[in-house]
Every structure is written in C-alpha cells, then in structure tokens.
Amino acid sequence: MRQQHYLIPTLRDIPADAEVVSHQLMLRAGLIRQLASGLYTYLPLAQKVLKKIQAIIREEMDKAGAQEILMPALHPAEIWQETGRWDVYGPELMRLYDRHERQFALGPTHEEVVTALVRDEIKSYKRLPMTVYQIQTKFRDERRPRFGVLRAREFIMKDAYSFDTSHEGLDESYRKMYEAYQAIFSRCGLNFRAVEADSGAIGGTGTHEFMVLSDVGEDTIAYCDSCQYAANIEKAEVNQRDYRQIESTGQPMEKVNTPQAKTVTELVDMLDVSPRQIIKAVALDVDGQVVVALVRGDFELNEVKVKNLFGADRVELLDEERIRAELGSEPGFIGPIGLDGAKIIADHSVKGMQDAVTGANEKDKHYIHVSVGRDFAVERYEDLRQITEGDACPRCEGTIRFAKGIEVGHVFKLGTKYSEAMGATFLDENGHQQPMIMGCYGIGVTRLLAAIIEQHHDEHGIIWPRAVAPFDIHLISVNMKDDMQRELAEQLYVKLQQAGFDVLYDDREERAGVKFKDADLIGIPLRVTVGKKAGDGIVECKLRRTGETEEIKADELIQILPRLLEQA
Fold first, then answer.
1. Is the distance from CB of 382 to CB of 397 less than 8 angstroms?
2. What is the arithmetic mean of pLDDT over 102-122?
3. Do residues 466 and 525 make contact, with C-beta atoms less than 8 angstroms apart?
4. How many Cβ atoms are within 10 Å of 369's Cβ, its own excluded?
5. What is the DSSP string of 160-229?
6. 302, 348 in Cβ contact below 8 A?
7. Cα 218 from Cα 210, distance rounded (Å)
C-alpha cells in the first residue's frame, strides 16, 4: 500500500480529551476518529488490525468446534421480556420504537436471541452439544463513555454460546472455550490473567474474566503471590482465619453521646478507639427486603457478595426516609441492637467481637462495650467484606496482592437461566423434555485492540506484536526526488509484495524526520529504509521493538527478512 494516498491522518500533539495512552496513540497514529461521545470511526490501519484479531479469534473458535453465525443487532422487546431482563437490565440497554410503535433494543448481548434460535431448531439430544459464535457490533448506553474504545457506546464483540445436555457437558464446553481464550490472548501478544469473577447482569455461576494487566485498567485483580489464585476484587474470597479480637473488659453495654460522629473516622477520633473495635451497620434494600449487614470498622462491605448470597437482582443502600420509617433508626447511627423490621447478617470479622462500638439507632448516640452474642444476635455469618491487599490467600499460605486489569474476555456457566425462561428444551434418551444447559463466552474485540496498545508502546508510539500488526514492513524512501533512492524503493516494493509480505510504502515527498516519526508512531514491526547508500544497493533495516538496526544488501533482503521478522 502506498502511503501517499493511504488514509493515515497522524497528529503531532496529544489530544486534550484523551486520558489514556491507547486513546492518545489511536488518535495520533490515525487509527480512529470520534463521531460523537463513545462513537468512533475505525480508519484503515485500525481496520487491518481488527481483521487480524478477528482472524485469530475465528481460527481458535473453529478449532474448538464452534460454528460461526450472525445474529441481528436489533432485538424485539418480547424476547427480553421472556427472560425478565427487559425490566432489570437498566438504562444501559438502548431502547427504541419502530414506526408501528413496537419496542426494540439495540443488543448489548445476545443470550435471548441465540436461545430463541436454538429453541426453535434443536429438539433432540442427538443434536447436542453445540456451540455457536458471532462477531457482531454491540451497543451499550454508557453513562460516561471514556478511555476511547475501552469504554464506548458502540463496540465489536465476539460472543459464543454453548448448549449441552448435562452439567458435565457444560464443563467440557467451558474448558474448550477457556483454553481457546488463553490461545487467543497469547497469540495477540498479551500479558493476561484469568480470574474468578461475578456474573453481573448476564447471570449464571462459574465465571472467569480474562484481564490484561495494565495500570489504566478499571478493574482491580486480587491475586496470590504464591499460588495461581486470582479473582476480580468483587468476587475474591476472604480467608476465614481466626480474627484476633480485643479482650473483653466485662463491662456492661453503655449508651454514650457522639454528636455528629457518623463515620468510622469520626468515631475513632471522638472515642479514642481502633477501627477494629467498631461494628459498622449498612442498611440495604435487597429485592425489596430490608437487610442490615454488619462488618468490622476497618473493612468495607462487598455488596456483590450480598447480592450473590440472596440470589438477588438488585441491592441498593436504603435511603434516609426508609431508614427512619422502616427501621426506626437514624442515618449515620444505625446499629443491630433493638433494631426491628430487618434481617441481620454479618461478616465473619464481626463474630466474637467484644467491647465494640456500634450505632444506637438514635441521633448522636452510640453504644460502647458491646459484646456480640451477649447484647445482640446475628441471623447468619457469611463472607461479606471486600478483600484487602495483604490478606491471607484463601487457597494457600500466600499473601493477596492487587493489580489493575482491563477486562477483554469473560466466560460464564449460565446453566438453565435462559433455557428455562424461554422454553429451550430437548428430548433426552428416555423421551423426556429437559432444559438445555448453556454457557456464554465473550471477547471485546475493539477493547482488545486498545489493550494491545496499552501493553505495547513506548514514548515514540505503538509497537505492534507481529501477529496483529497492520503491515509486516514499513518501506521508506528517504528522498523521493533522488532517482536512485526512488527506483530502488519502487523495485523493493514490488519484490516484497511478490514474496508475500504486507508492505506500507512511504512514497510521500516529506522530510526524512517526518517519515521516521510517523513510522515510530504507527509501530509496524520492521522498517526498511532506502537512503544515501541506495547507489551501493544497501538498505537499513530497523526493528521497531528493540531499535536495533542492520545494513543489508538490497538483493539479499528477501532471504534475510524471515530472520528479522522472527525477532520483531
């Protein structure tokens, strides 16, 4: 491809609204242009990279036995209403009406569509197991699109769906997709980890996220420094070791004045106690049920764990009006003693606390010298707190560490969540109707593009891994007005293409410095420069990743290129 007429509108300056490196470089290197908030046009360089990523995905999906289909992006409301997700998915679901006032949605995911398809087409166990996948444009009405294509309103995803006759079959389908994902991300040149995760709005159990390690990641990974345990911070289990409690003084519970002391920090300062002596009470609405969750003052409640504990669709903080009306308590001074109308649950860290401090359910009042069990009862103890860095690993004797990650893939065991709701059944060997056992497997294709750049760049620009690079070689003629340079560059351009290499040929009449800066910014693995030694038949080869250069005879270039590209 000749660069003179190729659409690569490079920029010298960093755009003011680009916060992260991938967004900055995708704009500067001429990969994308923004149409509106969260909406982007992918220019030729980006499109070539996306095609290579998609080719890798297709190869690994096909190898795992999945079949490619293409489903509509526009979904009728009725199928979402069948599963109940129309009402619970939230404002991220883009909804619209057609001219006949029928309601539709632009699909953020395709569980309902694929379940309807398989329900209508597959009737017997003899046709199962089956896995289908697509690469399709998705839509999500993000509250705040940011970080370029990492959090966009329109994006490309690969989503696959497996259908099995048993949970053992689902385990096998899940294993195949898990291994395919490991191969995909490894081939894309990424440093990643598969972590245990929460299933969120998709539903189901048994789920892993594939996280690309990056400081700009919006997700926090908790991982062990000694074993392979890793989990999203929302899902990470806490080692239920024996919490060291402060010894009891044996004093009776006492109500004290604590004016305006609504937070743990304020109580610590006012009462001269440790956060470990405070029982924090959080009032929640769990699918309409009032629940008060207790956690030690030096920890934070994990609402995702509460949601999973109750199998709830919705967990929200109880508002001040309901705290007063339904609990008979006072915001900022909630405690478990004498509390009516609420289910009381507690994190294991609360068990056995002595001489503790907790809210008295009156304004500006707290109880001190509180003993759990003596002064109030807990209905059940569970793992409810957020894991913290330095905690003991729940799997071994190691220590938990934190890292940031960009989620690029997610695999779920859906079970019968969708098949039962939509009547997707099959006849088993005995002629009985059974619900299909489903799995769901997603990859953010455009997000993957940005994640690669986050891990592969330097101060000069992008450094593409060869497997996904838009071109193999960037051929540069330093001075197009020099006949020898131009003629040798033209000859090499033809020969390289005939030898099967994908070449971007910089035939622009620009200064050498401009060409070299653009080459570093674009980041093609190997640069071949035709310069002042063209008359001697010598060219310079430079590896983008290492900066190493080597002078080579032009007539030997084709033979030497495989070795150079292997190093790229």
1. no
2. 97
3. yes
4. 18
5. EEEEESSHHHHHHHHHHHHHHHHHHHHHTT--EEEEE---GGG--EEEEEEEEE-TT-SEEEEEESSSS-
6. no
7. 13
Contacting residues for 564 by C-beta, under 8 A, at least 6 apart: 526, 541, 543, 550
As a whole number of angstroms, the distance between CA 270 and CA 258 comes to 7
* Range 401-412 average pLDDT: 94
78 Cα distance to chain centroid:
29
Q: Provide long-range contacts, Cβ within 8 A and 24+ apart, for 533-540.
A: 534/482, 534/484, 534/485, 534/488, 534/489, 535/484, 537/488, 539/488, 539/492
For residue 509, which amino acid is it?
E
Enclosing H/E stretch for 347: strand 343-347
- Element holding 451 (H helix, E strand): helix 445-455
Sheet of 343-347: strand order equals 315-317, 279-286, 289-296, 343-347, 380-382
Residues 282, 292: contact at Cβ < 8 Å? yes
> 174 with 411: CB under 8 angstroms?
yes
CA-closest candidate to residue 146, choices 20, 304, 281: 20
Question: Is the distance from CB of 524 to CB of 464 less than 8 angstroms?
Answer: yes
Indicate the angle between helix axes 557-567 and 483-498, nearest 10 degrees: 70
234 vs 240: CA distance, rounded Å: 17
Q: What residues are paired with 133 via a beta bridge? A: 68, 160
Q: Phi and psi at residue 184, in whole multiples of 5°?
A: -60, -50
Q: How many CA atoms lie within 13 A of 408 on its CB side?
A: 31
Q: What is the pLDDT of residues 219-271, one digit of tens each?
A: 899 999 999 899 989 889 999 875 666 677 778 999 999 999 999 999 999 99
Could you tell me the two tokens for 188? 């894309």
107, 211, 204, 221: which is closest to 154 by C-alpha? 107
Is the torsion defined by CA of 16, 18, 21, 23 positive or negative? negative
